[in-house]
């Protein structure tokens, strides 16, 4: 099983490579990727340097071009694909079917991965992308149970990549306009969810308020731990009760599922967090490298080491971890 | 401009659904989309029941399209989609890429609003695979729609979601069940109690969203009344109204009047505002936050 790690900067890419990532994924400095945050991502020079660094050590780099272009900005997306090829990226991650076709026709040898933003949750959908564009690998949305991932994997020739750790979308990726509804910028079109410029923190008489484009997402009393105001992580009122209507702010952590992933035939496990620091990337990559090496050596005897869980918990949102949809305690 | 009634997104008791479509047969809608799009656990109507309704609507002169699930997870979900796709009598609306694979090569299917088609290249690709109508994504702006249609294939119609609470997200989790501390598999079908979805307000009491099982909707009613000239200029052929618990017939009549030029946009918007379960919004069409009203 391969380890796919995030990099929002050259130092993060180097950290991922140094700590044992098989793949590093990154994006360009614009809205062609799903982590379009100020100060983040790669210009051409940094990407070239990162590719050289990874390739010298036998690792691969995949460029995410995984938002949806419209007619008016189409050429920025094709240019991103062309740049990935010109600089020698090992693959590109794409969500839009039209862009996928462009990449296949313009660069017949380019390895294509279907982005989680492509919202393919069934083997029928994956086979569509394989048959039409020769997609080699697909990242599954974080809505499927382990049994459902198995169903997909057993019925497609596309390699399966799943999220293993990090921030957790409760909603099916590529199908969520909550941020766009609240603030006008959506993951699909702008590569942003609840962008920082739309967020306001205000100390008030009733507590610390977190707003997104003026909309109150949550407020916190003394001693409560505040979370970033993503729409799906907020507290709202329904039928007279105020609660986390969608999910508590938690992080996905699937270390204990690794033997199950291996049994299913999952080909790669992905770490979320291109927006996180090089230190995060280094520490999380180190733990997951150790875990995958242990899995390879121990097989069914594999067990999660307490120090791994402790190291990862330090990076979890709200210091809490969940198995997410894979185990479905809410089912 | 033609008028379409989108699929019923809520879970209503069987008798209510049958009665509703009995009225729709006499409504102003030209096109009616039918079937379960949101949750495969919902079973008040079996596939045969939907087909019976489809027959009656077709006999009444409506164009009938069968819609498919927006989010497929299990083999059972796929079976449902296959069953709809295999029908030879009615057109099918594909709402995910699995459905596209099942329909590819067949003539006349519809690209549903849950499918991510944002640009002319993706649209052309699906046109080559037999799609003959594109329903733009809910978050589409005028710029997106006009751009996608600028070089469209001949014979490809386009439709825009123009009225109703907007489906904004889908999840594997059921948020209606969650409100009652129920597991999804033991949800007691509580969404039957919320014929327009369960309102969700901010902690300041501002209406924000509506919970509809695994689907999250806007609290506000999206409404493109007043935008008909811009819709036509962008190349849109059909406007879609989404079924709501009360007043759907009168909503359709207002839209018919606006499309035919017998009802002024301003008066139409006022009438629609009074009929809607939430405040009106149209931000997406203007490339802004969806909840805003221009």
3D architecture notes:
- By secondary structure, chain A is of the alpha/beta class.
- Chain A is built from 11 helices and 15 strands.
- In chain A, strand 8 and strand 9 form a beta hairpin.
- The model of chain A has no long low-confidence stretch (mean pLDDT 94).
- In chain B, helix 3 packs parallel to helix 4, helix 6 runs parallel beside helix 8 and helix 9 packs antiparallel against helix 10.
- Chain B has 294 residues and is α/β, with parallel strands linked by helices.
- The radius of gyration of chain B is 18 Å and the shape is globular.
- In chain B, strand 1, helix 1 and strand 2 form a beta-alpha-beta unit.
- An 8-stranded parallel beta barrel of chain B has the order 1-2-3-4-5-6-7-11, surrounded by 4 helices.
- Chains A and B meet through helix 4, helix 5, helix 7, strand 10 and strand 11 of A and helix 3, helix 4, helix 5, helix 6 and strand 7 of B.
Instruction: Tell me the fraction of residues in β-strands of chain A, as a range.
Output: 15-25%
Mean model confidence by pLDDT of chain B:
97
- Integer-rounded radius of gyration of chain B: 18 Å
Count of helices of chain A? 11
* Span of the ends, CA to CA of chain B: 22 Å
- H/E topology pattern of chain B: EHEHEHEHEHEHEHEEEHEHHE
Order of adjacent strands in the largest pleated sheet of chain B: 1-2-3-4-5-6-7-11
Q: Which stretches of chain A of 5+ consecutive residues score pLDDT under 50?
A: none
Shape of chain B: globular
Q: Percent of residues of chain A in helical segments?
A: 25-40%
**Strand line-up of the largest beta sheet of chain A:** 1-2-3-4-5-6-7-14
Separation of the first and last Cα atoms of chain A: 28 Å
Largest sheet of chain A: 8 strands, parallel, barrel
């Amino acid at each position: 099983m391969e380890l796919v790690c995030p990099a929002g900067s050259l130092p993060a890419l180097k950290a991922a490579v140094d700590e044992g990532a098989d793949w590093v994924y990154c994006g360009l400095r614009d809205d062609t990727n799903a982590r379009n945050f100020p100060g983040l991502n790669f210009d051409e020079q940094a990407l070239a340097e990162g590719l050289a660094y990874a390739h010298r050590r036998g690792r691969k780099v995949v460029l995410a071009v995984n938002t949806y272009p419209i007619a008016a900005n189409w050429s920025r997306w094709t240019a991103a694909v062309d740049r990935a090829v010109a600089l020698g990226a090992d693959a590109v991650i794409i969500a839009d079917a039209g862009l996928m076709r462009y990449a296949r026709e313009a660069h017949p040898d380019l390895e294509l991965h279907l982005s989680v933003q492509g919202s393919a949750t069934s083997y029928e959908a994956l086979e569509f992308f394989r048959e039409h564009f020769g997609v080699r690998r697909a990242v599954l949305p974080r809505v499927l149970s382990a049994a459902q991932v198995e169903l997909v994997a057993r019925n497609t020739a596309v390699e399966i990549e799943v999220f293993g750790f990090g921030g957790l979308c409760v909603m099916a990726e590529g199908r969520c306009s909550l941020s766009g509804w609240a603030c006008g910028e959506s993951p699909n079109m702008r590569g942003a969810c609840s962008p920082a410029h739309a967020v306001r923190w205000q100390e008030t008489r009733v507590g610390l308020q977190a707003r997104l484009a003026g909309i109150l997402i949550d407020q916190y009393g003394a001693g409560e731990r505040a979370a970033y105001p993503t729409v799906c992580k907020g507290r709202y009122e329904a039928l007279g009760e105020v609660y986390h209507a969608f999910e508590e702010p938690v992080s996905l952590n699937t270390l204990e599922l690794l033997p199950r992933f291996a049994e299913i035939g999952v080909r790669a496990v992905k770490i979320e967090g291109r927006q996180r620091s090089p230190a995060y990337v280094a520490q999380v990559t180190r733990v997951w490298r150790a875990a995958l090496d242990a899995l390879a050596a121990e097989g069914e005897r594999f067990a999660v080491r307490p120090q791994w869980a402790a190291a990862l918990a330090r990076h979890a949102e709200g210091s809490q971890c969940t198995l997410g949809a894979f185990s479905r305690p809410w089912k | 401009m033609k008028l379409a009634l989108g699929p019923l997104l809520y879970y209503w008791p069987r008798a209510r659904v049958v009665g509703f479509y009995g009225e729709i047969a006499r409504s102003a809608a030209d096109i009616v989309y039918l079937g379960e799009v949101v949750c495969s656990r919902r079973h008040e109507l079996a596939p045969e029941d939907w087909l019976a309704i489809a027959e009656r609507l077709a006999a009444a002169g409506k164009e009938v399209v069968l819609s498919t699930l927006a989010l497929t997870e299990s083999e059972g979900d796929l079976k449902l989609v296959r069953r709809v796709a295999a029908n030879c009598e009615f057109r099918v609306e594909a709402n995910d890429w699995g459905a596209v694979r099942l329909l590819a090569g067949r003539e006349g299917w519809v690209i549903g609003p849950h499918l991510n088609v944002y640009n002319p290249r993706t649209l052309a690709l699906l046109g080559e695979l037999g799609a003959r109508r594109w329903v733009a994504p809910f978050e589409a702006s005028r710029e997106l729609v006009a751009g996608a249609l600028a070089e469209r294939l001949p014979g490809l119609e386009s439709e825009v979601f123009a009225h109703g609470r907007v489906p904004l997200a889908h999840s594997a989790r059921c948020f209606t069940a969650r409100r009652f501390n129920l597991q999804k598999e033991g949800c007691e079908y509580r969404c039957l109690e919320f014929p327009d979805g369960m309102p969700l307000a901010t902690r300041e009491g501002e209406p924000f969203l509506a919970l509809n099982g695994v689907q999250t909707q806007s609290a506000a009613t999206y409404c493109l009344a007043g935008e008909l000239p811009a819709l036509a200029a962008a190349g849109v052929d059909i406007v879609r109204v989404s079924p709501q618990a009360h007043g759907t017939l009168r909503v359709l009549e207002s839209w018919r009047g606006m499309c035919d030029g017998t009802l002024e946009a301003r008066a139409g918007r006022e009438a629609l505002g009074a009929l809607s379960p939430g405040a009106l919004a149209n931000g997406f069409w203007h490339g802004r936050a969806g909840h805003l009203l221009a």
